[in-house]
Write a structure and sequence with these properties.
239 residues, 4-stranded mixed sheet, 62% helix, disordered N terminus
């Protein structure tokens, strides 16, 4: 029992630390996006790609060497991050892993858009930082099931992806982060994310009847993990 308690306490401590890193890195991204030189370069080229100079933040993140920002032109305000590592990486190779944050912004964007963008950045970063702490073997399970990365190639591949242990954990912590930012019940934010996934499935041509059972299974997996990891997710935002 003592060993179990110590393990859980370390788990909670690691989660709190990743929350702090999420805040620090997202702040650096926003500061960069507000920079006049970055804005000018993006407005002229309609894209920009750069590495954040944040070695002081990343020093204690063993499996994240660099964070890159990829700015893309679009009508929406959106952010999506990716954790990139060598397949079947050794422990040493994992130390060279990177996070790439895709940020979609309109040309000539104003700073007022950040109220919408910051929650997207933080949710995506928290998701990918969770991946950075996961064992390579766990990450490789879904890579082997979907080697092309085409999640919606079949209903089976979509189900395998969203119910995979690695993705379940990463999606749930990202959702929890977003719920804390908006001070909304985490279960409601989880269901909003499931609706986004459901809409994506419809976009790929699957029917409501086909998607129904899969969405129910994903919801079951995610809610179970959320309730086990964040038992006070619905009410306690001061932890």
């Amino acid at each position: 029992m003592k060993l179990l308690f110590e393990s859980w306490r370390r788990y909670l401590k690691e989660g709190r630390e990743l929350e702090q890193y999420t805040t620090l890195i997202s702040r650096e991204i926003v500061n960069a996006l507000k920079d006049s030189d970055v804005k000018d370069a993006f407005n002229q080229a309609k894209q920009a790609y750069f590495k954040l100079d944040i070695e002081h933040i990343l020093d204690n993140l063993e499996y994240v060497k660099d964070v890159y920002v990829n700015m893309l032109e679009g009508d929406l305000v959106y952010a999506h991050a990716k954790y990139e590592f060598d397949l079947d990486a050794t422990e040493e190779q994992r130390k060279n892993s990177e996070i790439v944050v895709d940020v979609i912004l309109p040309i000539g964007y104003e700073n007022s858009i950040f109220s919408e963008l910051i929650p997207e950045i933080k949710e995506s970063l928290r998701h990918e930082l969770e991946h950075s702490t996961q064992p390579t073997e766990m990450l490789m399970k879904i890579q082997k099931k979907i080697p092309t990365g085409d999640v919606w190639n079949t209903l089976e591949s979509a189900e395998a992806y969203f119910t995979n242990e690695s993705e379940t954990k990463a999606h749930v912590v990202g959702i929890y982060k977003k719920a804390k930012m908006f001070k909304e019940p985490a279960g409601e934010v989880l269901d909003q994310e499931l609706m986004n996934i459901y809409s994506t499935g419809l976009h790929y041509g699957y029917t409501e009847e086909e998607l129904g059972p899969i969405m129910s299974k994903i919801r079951e997996y995610w809610r179970y993990y959320m309730q086990s990891r964040f038992p006070h997710a619905e009410i306690d935002w001061d932890r």
